[in-house]
Design brief:
mainly alpha
């Protein structure tokens, strides 16, 4: 047992040293000259929007979110009036509100906790996995979480430095890689999307409010995109919905209601959403992954 423990300790130490080495190389490659934005009239005094935030809000981010409908396809299939396009488009804003409420009540507390304390990443991931009862929702969360962790390692961590969040992600990845492929049911770590998102945004110096809002807005974009592909609405109507003050107000509202909710009080706010998501894999035909 001691040899196994020593091997794990050495592996974690090597991972920490690799992160520190990457951060040192990043600092070495930076130019000592002042930035072009210093004291230049083309740039505002309070700075431009966060560059990493713009990267993470890109719809082309390779996370696989487009493959899931978050229960929308099942919701439409279980409501006979939705066979009429006009009725389906009128019912969609209500579904989007339910989807955002579900995400905020079940997942937002883990984002806030992981961003505030990245060292608890492994514990938060295990807790979220134990509290995710719907297997379809669990598969979607784990698939996107592992994709984001891969994106972090291959593209995003170069300029992040050796922050506690970066070290936590490195240790998390090292432990996750030791789990045999397709054999993660008996292991504590799964790689859920929400805590990994929080740790990545923390490592990239994205504020807690920006991280939470972008996570919810990205989810809304994924659901709206699914609605377009399901012929619920057209692309212009979809963009109008994303740009509307109603969507912004709903995101801010669910953030405010769940901002002080801890992970011990996180719970499904819309139980029907779990039923729609869970029954998706039972549909006779479907265009989205379960």
């Amino acid at each position: 047992m001691s040899s196994i423990a020593d091997e794990q300790t050495l592996t974690e130490e090597v991972t920490r040293l690799e992160v520190q080495l990457t951060a040192a190389r990043s600092r070495l490659g930076r130019s000592p000259t002042p930035s072009a934005s210093d004291n230049h009239p083309a740039f505002p005094p309070n700075g431009l929007p966060s560059h990493p935030l713009l990267v993470l809000s890109d719809s082309a981010l390779p996370l696989g979110s487009f493959a899931f409908s978050s229960g929308l396809e099942s919701y439409l299939a279980h409501h006979s009036p939705s066979t009429k396009p006009k009725v389906a488009s009128e019912a969609f804003p209500h579904f989007l509100t339910l989807a955002l409420t579900t995400l905020a009540t079940t997942t937002l507390p883990y984002i806030l906790a992981a961003h505030r304390s990245p060292k608890q990443l492994q514990e938060l991931d295990a807790t979220l996995d134990a509290c995710t009862l719907c297997p379809v929702a669990r598969r979607a969360s784990v698939a996107q979480g592992k994709a984001l962790l891969t994106l972090w390692e291959r593209a995003l961590r170069t300029g992040a430095g050796a922050s506690p969040a970066a070290l936590a992600l490195a240790e998390f990845s090292a432990v996750l890689k030791r789990i045999p492929l397709h054999c993660d049911n008996d292991y504590e770590l799964s790689g859920h999307f929400a805590p990994i998102w929080a740790a990545v945004t923390c490592a990239l110096d994205i504020t807690l409010h920006e991280s939470a809002y972008t996570f919810l807005f990205n989810h809304a974009k994924a659901v709206v995109s699914a609605a377009v592909r399901a012929s619920v609405m057209g692309p212009y109507a979809a963009q109008a919905m994303l740009a509307s003050g109603r969507l912004r107000g709903e995101i801010e509202d669910v953030m405010a209601k769940n901002w002080d909710v801890g992970i011990k009080d996180a719970a499904q706010g819309v139980p029907m959403c779990d039923l729609w998501v869970g029954r998706h894999e039972l549909l006779y035909s479907r265009i989205f992954n379960s």
